[in-house]
Recover the amino acids of this structure.
């Protein structure tokens, strides 16, 4: 484009802008006095456009007040740079672990050791031991000597076997998971940490579908064997559980996880011919989860208080820590009975049964009393205390009779 053409184009643009400004100016000064000096004898609200400075004024309170006008809105500016990413939020996902107390944190029964087959020790964990001697005990990690260096655990379970020879011999640590419908027809992974006192013995893993009383036949599934050493190792096994199609579910069904440490030949099919073993087996960090991957160990609940509450769905103990500590209050019903209404700290799986250990008496009158379950449901239990010399309608503190180990408990175990 020639210089003359460029000048002509620029002149056209200037003329257009001038005409636009004239239109805007006319709109602004409409109704106002236009002059180079302020009007004489103005009235309140009069407007004056100063033709010299191009400024608009309004007369208010005996003064000419300059009035600003808003110009046209400009184009939107460029988008600013993206800010830094904020801190990650907390993980609200549920734990993948179907095992409750897999880290052996909760020990309401105060297990030290037991040789009674079928006994529960750590909450939710029982053991079976036939033939020879099988001992189930609670052990404590030394500081810094944890199974998993990324998890500061407190306790682990120990099973010691010796003297077994019979074909029906067995020794296994087990947990029943509520209920048999859990993970049915799905691929699952079971993981755990374990070590032995000597040699390289094995642990056989079995997961069984228990359809309960009146239900279909017990359905065990062998997952595999872990070969131990004298140092902590993590093991993981994956398999697919059977579908429940065509099955009948009875009373108290469950999914049972068994860690076998010794098995006579009668149990070969269930344990992959594990065989009888005499050794000391330490176990920690048991996890059952959906899928084919063993994720890092997590409690069933997000914290220790939640894990305790999960355990108390199945078992709750009321005890004391010193001689003559009170355990509850009761109200006299007759001359031989009194009654306690005991709210349970967690709703239990079902209306529980009651058991007791040690002696109890009243703080007033030293009346020896024996507890029994009167009525109850999964949230509230009524306990009758029987003794001689009770005053009807009087209140009593029930305390242990010089026995800090005395307790009564409620159980709704599977």
């Amino acid at each position: 484009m020639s210089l003359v053409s460029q000048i002509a184009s620029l002149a056209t643009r200037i003329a257009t802008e001038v005409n636009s400004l004239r239109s805007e100016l006319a709109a602004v000064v409409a109704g106002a006095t236009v002059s180079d000096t302020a009007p004489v004898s103005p009235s309140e609200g009069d407007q004056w456009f100063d033709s010299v400075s191009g400024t608009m004024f309004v007369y208010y309170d005996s003064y000419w007040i300059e009035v600003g006008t808003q110009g046209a809105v400009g184009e939107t500016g460029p988008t600013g740079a993206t800010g830094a990413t904020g801190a990650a939020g907390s993980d609200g996902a549920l734990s993948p672990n179907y095992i409750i107390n897999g880290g052996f944190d909760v020990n309401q029964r105060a297990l030290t050791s037991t040789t009674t087959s079928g006994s529960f020790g750590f909450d939710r964990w029982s053991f079976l031991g036939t033939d020879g001697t099988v001992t189930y005990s609670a052990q404590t990690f030394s500081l810094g000597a944890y199974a998993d260096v990324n998890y500061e655990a407190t306790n682990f379970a120990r099973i010691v076997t010796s003297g077994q020879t019979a074909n029906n011999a067995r020794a296994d640590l087990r947990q029943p998971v509520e209920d048999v419908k859990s993970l049915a027809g799905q691929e699952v992974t079971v993981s755990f940490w374990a070590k032995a006192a000597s040699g390289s013995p094995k642990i056989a893993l079995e997961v069984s579908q228990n359809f309960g009383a009146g239900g279909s036949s017990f359905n065990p599934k062998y997952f595999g064997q872990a070969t131990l050493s004298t140092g902590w190792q993590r093991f993981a096994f994956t398999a697919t559980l059977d579908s429940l199609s065509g099955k009948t579910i009875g009373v108290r069904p469950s999914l049972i996880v068994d860690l076998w440490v010794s098995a006579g030949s009668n149990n070969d099919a269930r344990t992959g011919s594990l065989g009888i073993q005499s050794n000391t087996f330490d176990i920690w960090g048991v996890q059952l989860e959906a899928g084919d991957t063993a994720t890092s160990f997590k409690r069933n609940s997000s914290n220790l208080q939640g894990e305790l509450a999960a355990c108390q769905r199945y078992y709750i103990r009321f005890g004391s820590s010193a001689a003559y500590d009170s355990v509850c209050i009761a109200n006299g019903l007759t001359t031989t009975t009194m009654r306690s209404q005991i709210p349970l700290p967690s709703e239990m799986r079902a209306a529980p049964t009651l058991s007791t250990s040690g002696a109890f008496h009243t703080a007033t009158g030293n009346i020896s009393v024996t507890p029994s379950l009167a009525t109850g449901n999964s949230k509230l239990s009524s306990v009758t205390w029987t003794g001689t010399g009770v005053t009807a309608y009087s209140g009593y503190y029930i305390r242990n009779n010089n026995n800090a180990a005395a307790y009564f408990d409620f159980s709704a175990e599977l």
